[in-house]
Amino acid sequence: MYPLSVNDELQQLKQSLRALGIKVIKIEKAGNGNMAAFQLLYVKPGSDEVRETFFWRHDTDRFLEKIKASL
Q: What pLDDT does 3 receive?
């Protein structure tokens, strides 16, 4: 199997967040060059407040666990 592209990984993350009931507003790269940091704008279930957080591409599993714990 071929390695996933960054876009594929971000699409999988979006799907996982949607499965938790989280509305993804935007994911965009944060930083310059080879930095693998991303900004996420999202809305938690039952809220209208747009929230902002950052995550590292290589650490999306741990990031998802933190999001799950915050719900």
A: 63
37-43 and 50-56 beta bridge pairing: antiparallel
Question: In which region does residue 54 sit, left (phi positive, over 0), alpha (psi from -120 to 50) or beta (all else)?
Answer: beta
SS3 58: helix
Say how many C-beta atoms besides its own lie within 10 A of residue 17's C-beta. 19
Q: Could you read off the pLDDT of 17-57 as tens digits, one per residue? A: 999 999 999 999 997 766 689 999 999 999 999 999 999 98
List b or e across 26-48, with b for residues whose CB sees 16 or more CB atoms inside 10 angstroms: ebeeeeeeeeeebebebebeeee
